[in-house]
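Format notes (please read before filing issues)

Several people have asked whether sequences and structure tokens are stored in separate files. They are not. Every record keeps both together, in the order shown below: the sequence lines, then the token lines. Line labels are part of the format and must not be stripped during preprocessing.
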Amino acid sequence: AKPIAVRPTSETIMYPAFSDWIKSHRDLPLKLNQWSNVVRWEFKDPTPFLRSREFLWQEGHTAHVSYEDSQVMVRQALELYRRVYEELYAVPVVPGYKTEAEKFAGGHQTTTVEAYIAGSGRAIQGATSHNLGQNFGKMFDIKFQDDTGKSQIVWQTSWGLTTRSIGVMVMVHGDDKGLVLPPRIAPLQAVIVPIVSKKLSYADAKPYCESILKDLTDAGIRAKFDDREMYNPGWKYNHWEQKGVPIRIEVGPRDVETKQARIVSRYNGDKEDFSIDGLGAKMKEKLDIIQGAMFEKAKKARDQHLVKVTEWKDFVPNLELSNLVLTPWCGGEHEDWEDWVKEKSREESLAARGEEGEDERTATSVAAKTLCIPFDQPELPEGTKCFASGKPATCWVLWGRSY
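Then the structure lines:
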């Protein structure tokens, strides 16, 4: 049999080449990005949209002359991921640091953006950006000569975003009718559906709809005129709702008479009548409004389940309410207390449900885990104790049930 290598990420493939390529400080920074399919290192039960054995992702790898330069890169990459989630997917995230127990193996520090899926009451890691320190540089002998002629080890980063992000977006916004797509990433932003009847023939509706389509496309909107004659309007409504198209434009006999169209928003079902005069510009503005409203709707749903807890007795009851829980913590280095919280919360949750145990492979454990130490820290009054250990608290940490 041929020997095979499980490749969860590309450090071991790329870094021997880094050692050959990098000789001088003039070779730095070195920044590489690639899209590739990789195999998951640890594997629990698969979860549709979110967790598969093999996945497609973007991974970036960089090398720098100093820790400060590498840290700038780490935060730039994480800010890019925050913008992907919030500005494109309309999904709010919490940026922060991972604890020592949750950071990337072999790395110096891991930063993350954490999302919340209201439908399941669970958090999910959105994307990560790692400062690898000099650990991999030492392992793979990646050295450079600095401007004084002295040999130094590089400082490295790696960061990645997977197609899981699309699954998160689907689960955050989707409803019982199907997909609900934010306008900025929707392949099709508007669809025109004629309501053909005895009062409005297909021949009469077609030029009217085509003029609307031209106005929309001239305004830069990704639009389509559904001119299929074998399906009735109700079937088409259902079809495009399932596909999550942000705007449906209905054209009936009265609309043609009054030179208007009915606009239906997918995300909330609102209906409005608009004049077709300058409709493209109006729909461009409407799409921006929908994008912002979807973000605010998701943020409101997340914030309603974000609570502060300072005593253990309130911790598991809040997990049972599908909440994200912000607690005072004795520090990300206390892996023993982190393990204690995970096991104790599992034990109390199972007892409250009358269950004896759970499969170790489950991707939906009832145990709490640390999501991140948020960058945006609430005030921590002097003398505040860690909710678990009773030691002096040094920060707030965000917990939740996670995928």
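For reference, the curators noted about this record: The radius of gyration is 26 Å. The chain has a mean pLDDT of 94.
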